[in-house]
Amino acid sequence: MEKLLRCFTERPGAAARLLCFPWAGGGAVHYARWGAALGGSVEVMAVTLPGRESRAREPFFQNMQQIVDEVIGALLPLLKEKPFAFFGHSFGAFTCFAVADALKKLHNMEPAHIFLSGASAPFSDIRVKAPKRSELSDEDFLGWLTSVGGTPPELLANPEVLKLFLPALKADLHVVENYRCNKPEAPLLSCAITCFDGKEDVPHDLQAWRDVTSGDFTIRMFDGAHFYLKEAGNEKILLDYITKHLEMLEIDYL
User: Fold this and answer.
1) Phi and psi at residue 149, to the nearest 5°
2) Helix (H) or strand (E) holding 241
3) 20 to 30 A from 12, CA-CA: which of 67, 165, 184, 252?
């Protein structure tokens, strides 16, 4: 469990736990600051997938089912301790939804709230018709990555760093680009879902996420592009919003 789930600021007395899923190519480190910023009422845990950070020597996962199986296996012992919520940005939005979907189907458990950021619903036309970036040449891939923003220019200009960074990013994109999910005939979940996005990002079909839950559904837009959440002002608003909703959870949720 420790290799997959990292908790940078342990809060045994926290009323709720937030599990954060990384964006493509990313790891758990970005969420280290969140553990302190969210205060004593929320304990933050972050997913570290194979092929990066402390798991750099492990082979990348090839499909979404591998991610779902490992995350659920590590999570199950923790889920009955206190209410929990999921947060995922971009690739992380797909992985946390896939985990939540499987958790509900296999164990009849679900998060109290799912916070989805920077991604269309997996069954939406925009997502299904999106080009497969993982199949681009390295040159074209870097051009696309630069246009998206959010990656430090000095990283993109460093060939040695790119040798480590690009394989993880392409591996994650391969997983999500081959992830299939049909539009549900009835809501899969009953928890609240909030979608976040940057106003200057490429268009995402956020409204389509409404079809996956019978619970409350909200969309919040921020100034900025795909990595709007890295901007300090946006991050504060986002974390204040998450904190407010998690502090409202009943202790006896499960």
Assistant:
1) 80, 175
2) helix 232-247
3) 67
Outline where 125-186 has alpha helix (H).
Answer: 125-128, 138-148, 153-156, 159-177
- Terminal-residue alpha carbon distance, the chain: 22
With residue 232 as reference, give the H or E element that holds it: helix 232-247
Q: Residue 3, SS3?
A: coil
Contact 197, 221 (CB under 8 A): yes
Q: Which CATH architecture has domain 5-247?
A: 3-Layer(aba) Sandwich (3.40)
Paired tokens of 22: 């990384």
Residue with tokens 């420790």: 2
* Positive or negative: CA dihedral 105, 111, 112, 114: negative
* Active-site amino acid positions: 90, 226
Distance CA 89, CA 67 (A): 16
